[in-house]
Design brief:
Layout: E1 2-13, E2 20-31, E3 35-39, H1 46-54, E4 61-66, E5 69-70, E6 81-84, H2 96-106, H3 111-124, H4 140-152, E7 158-162, H5 170-187, E8 190-195, H6 198-204, E9 207-212, E10 215-220, H7 222-227, H8 232-237, E11 242-248, E12 254-256, E13 260-262, E14 273-277, E15 282-286, E16 292-301, E17 305-311, E18 317-323, E19 337-342, E20 347-350
Parallel strand pairs: 3-8, 3-9, 6-7, 7-8
Antiparallel strand pairs: 1-2, 1-4, 4-5, 9-10, 11-12, 11-14, 12-13, 14-20, 15-19, 16-17, 16-19, 17-18
The structure holds adenosine-5'-diphosphate and magnesium ion.
Length: 352
Amino acid sequence: QVAVSVQSASKVFGAGASAFTALNDVSVDIADNEFFTLLGPSGCGKTTLLRLIAGFEEPTSGRILLNGTDISALPPFKRPVNTVFQNYALFPHMTVAQNIGFGLEMQKRPKAEIDATVSEMLALVQMTQMAGRKITEISGGQQQRVALARALAPRPKVLLLDEPLSALDLQLRKDMQIELKRLQTETGITFVFVTHDQEEALTMSDRIAVMQAGNILQIGDPREIYEHPAHRFVAGFIGEINLLEAEAQSDGAFRVGQTGSLRAAEASAGQPATLAIRPERIVLSPGGTGGLPGTITNVVYHGTDTIVHFALPGGTAMKARLQNTSSAPLPFATGDAVAWSADPRSVSVLEG
Ligand code: ADP
Ligand code: MG
């Protein structure tokens, strides 16, 4: 069941010589009950896409469907959608409970219903003890919870969250990531979550859309996006990765420089190809046999793992991340010859 369907949506700001395409023919289907994340660097169009879904902005072309109904022409307040903004936008002179009940008051719901919903929301975000406090009398993390409770109170079908954790410090942000995921599971509301933080996206999302310069480059679950980036930008934006220029051979493997060949998860998409391999997927053998040749340039101990930097005969710099499974040092040192390999399933072939 599709909750939100964005169909060929474009957004151009301005006109003539100053026209700027913030979204370029974007299509995405977000499922009912899904924790869906828009991930990309600042300026790539994440907020613009959320604003189109919310109705604060009209698409230049394309349309937005909610549960199969075209809502492109509905004003924001008529859409069963609510937004949590980056700055929370709470009312400082009101209490926590008044803030949470505000949307329901506007809808002129009966008082008994409002009271019941506010109590439920206070419990959901674990703020029952703070109900009577003013917004100015609670911490940033608590304000974040109130903003969430206020947005959830009218029971929207879809909740849009625009970098809601970016104002919090690291530890609180980590706690709130778990909290948000719990809230989404408990309420069953579809979440469309925006972040520029790849780790946040990987830990919270059912699926991620990676955006760049107004385009969606790849959509997939966290494992697919991380293990099988389809695009050079996606590979580089999420985690660390080794990129290798290679030539497709007739047998389906890829020739890497003059030094040997590698098999990948798929056969060649075209010539020349770029291969991508995560540092933790590289297998190293001491000495020069059992893989492609390299020379170790640096070995850096990181506690849980060790990063071995090595160079290919053509000079390409590579990194392997090896787990420190015992207290003994790994058998690799700067200047040593090394042989490396990777399971074909861990070698991605990139576009773009
Ligand atoms: P993100 O949320 O990913 O950082 P935005 O969606 O806010 O990106 O912005 C995407 C691009 O569109 C940016 O280059 C921004 O400057 C531009 N933009 C956003 N809103 C407007 C507007 N109202 N008028 C002109 N340009 C805009
Ligand atoms: Mg933004």
